[in-house]
Design goal:
Number of helices: 0
Largest sheet: 4 strands, antiparallel
Number of strands: 32
Structural class: mainly beta
Shape: globular
Distance between the termini: 41 Å
Oligomer: single chain
Length: 367
C-alpha cells in the first residue's frame, strides 16, 4: 500500500464562498442516524433511547413517532418505493414499518451483536446490514427478507456499509479493525482492503461524480482520508478535527466533503483543493450522524443533544447573459450554456425550447 500524502500544501486557492442557512433545529435525545425523504419534506431520526421519529422540516413539527426498542436504534432508513422505514437496534433485530399506516411489516433477528448500519440498494430489493458481530449481511425483501449472503473478513466491529452509486453491485465497509474493504454482492470475501488509518474507521462514502473513483473515510485517528479505489491508494489526508471522526460524506451535487466529529464540529472541505472551507458548531455536543439528499442542497446532522437541517448555498441556478446572446448558468458546480440567437422567430410570451451545452464544472461555488 502507498503512503498517504499529508495535508494540502499551502498555496493560494479561492474559497467556495457558500452561504449556509439552518432550516431546522430541534433538541432531542442522542441522535444515532438521520435520513432525508426524497419527495416528502421529512427527516427520519433514530435515537439512542430506542425511538424513531419522522420530522417535517417545513412545518418544524414531529409527524410520527415509533417505539422501536428498549435499546438504542443505531440506524434507520427510508425505503420510499415501498413506503417503509427500516430500523436496526441493539436488540439484534431489524424492524420494518409502513410509514403511512405505522403498521409493523416485519421483525427479524439480523445479527448476533449490535446492528451498526443499514444501506438500501438504489434499484434492487436489497438491504445490507453491518454489525459488531464483524459481519455484513445482504437481505432480500421480495424473498421475505431472506439472508442472501454473509460477508466475512473484518476482525472488529463493522461500523458502516455503503453501496457504490456508480456500480451498486459493489459496496464499501468501514471497521474498527482500521480498514476499509470493498466487496461485490456475489462473493462473500472482499475484493480488496484499504489500509492507512492508525485507529478504527467509523465511516465511509463514495464520490458520486463521474470523473474520480474516490472513497472518503473518517476514523478515530481524527483524520479524514480520500482513497482512489481503482489504484487502491490514499490520495489525500485531511487533518483538523480534534477528536474521533464519526461521519463523513461526499456531497452528491456540490464540490465539497462534509465531516462530523466528537469534537462537536461539522467541517466542510473543498473536494477539489482539499482546503477547509468552514467549521460549524451549533452547540449540540458530539456529532454522530450526517446525510445529504441527492439533487438537493440540504444536509441533516444528528448530535448528542438534537438535530439540525442546513441548506448549503442556493438551489436556484446562478445565471449570466452576455451581449452576444449566450446565457451561461451554474446549477451547483455544473456550468451550462445556450444561445438564444439560435431560436426561430417566436411570438411575444412564447416559451423557447433551446438546446443546452455542457461547459464543465467549477472548482469554486458559483454565485
Amino acid at each position: 500500500f502507498h503512503l498517504c500524502p499529508s495535508s494540502p500544501q499551502k498555496q493560494v486557492k479561492m474559497p467556495l464562498r457558500m452561504e449556509i442557512k439552518r432550516l431546522l433545529s430541534k433538541g432531542t435525545d442522542r441522535v444515532k442516524s438521520v435520513d432525508i425523504h426524497p419527495t416528502e419534506t421529512w427527516l427520519l431520526v433514530s435515537l439512542y433511547n430506542g425511538q424513531v421519529h419522522i420530522w417535517n422540516y417545513k412545518t418544524e413539527s414531529l409527524v410520527k413517532s415509533f417505539e422501536v426498542s428498549q435499546q438504542p436504534v443505531r440506524c434507520a432508513k427510508f425505503i420510499p418505493r415501498k413506503q417503509w422505514i427500516v430500523a436496526g437496534a441493539d436488540d439484534l433485530a431489524v424492524r420494518v414499518y409502513n410509514y403511512n399506516t405505522m403498521a409493523k411489516v416485519k421483525t427479524f433477528e439480523a445479527h448476533n451483536d449490535y446492528i451498526r448500519f443499514l444501506a438500501i440498494h438504489p434499484t434492487q430489493p436489497l438491504m445490507l446490514s453491518s454489525s459488531d458481530d464483524m459481519t455484513i449481511r445482504l437481505w432480500n425483501w421480495e424473498k421475505n427478507w431472506q439472508c442472501m449472503q454473509t460477508y466475512e473478513g473484518h476482525n472488529h466491529f463493522v461500523m458502516m456499509v455503503t453501496f457504490n452509486p456508480k456500480d451498486p453491485n459493489t459496496f464499501a465497509s468501514a471497521s474498527l479493525d482500521r480498514t476499509i474493504k470493498v466487496w461485490g454482492l456475489g462473493t462473500s470475501t472482499a475484493h480488496f482492503t484499504l489500509e492507512g488509518h492508525d485507529q478504527g474507521v467509523n465511516c465511509v462514502d463514495y464520490y458520486t461524480g463521474g470523473d474520480k473513483p474516490y472513497i472518503v473515510s473518517g476514523a478515530d485517528d481524527r483524520l479524514v482520508k480520500i482513497w482512489d479505489y481503482q489504484n487502491k491508494t490514499c490520495v489525500q489526508t485531511l487533518d483538523g478535527h480534534t477528536h474521533n471522526v464519526s461521519v463523513v460524506a461526499y456531497h452528491p451535487s456540490l464540490p465539497i466533503i462534509i465531516s462530523g466529529s466528537e469534537d462537536t464540529t461539522v467541517r466542510i472541505w473543498n473536494a477539489n483543493t482539499y482546503r477547509l472551507e468552514k467549521s460549524l458548531n451549533y452547540g449540540m455536543d458530539r456529532v454522530w450522524a450526517l446525510t445529504c439528499l441527492k439533487g438537493s442542497n440540504k444536509v441533516a446532522i444528528g448530535y448528542d443533544n438534537g438535530l439540525s437541517l442546513i441548506k448549503l448555498g442556493r438551489e436556484e441556478p446562478a445565471v449570466s447573459m452576455a451581449n452576444n446572446g449566450k446565457i451561461i448558468w451554474a446549477k451547483n458546480n455544473e456550468i451550462q450554456q445556450l444561445d438564444i440567437k439560435t431560436a426561430a422567430e417566436v411570438t411575444d410570451g412564447e416559451r423557447l425550447a433551446l438546446p443546452t451545452k455542457e461547459v464543465g464544472t467549477s472548482e469554486v461555488f458559483p454565485r
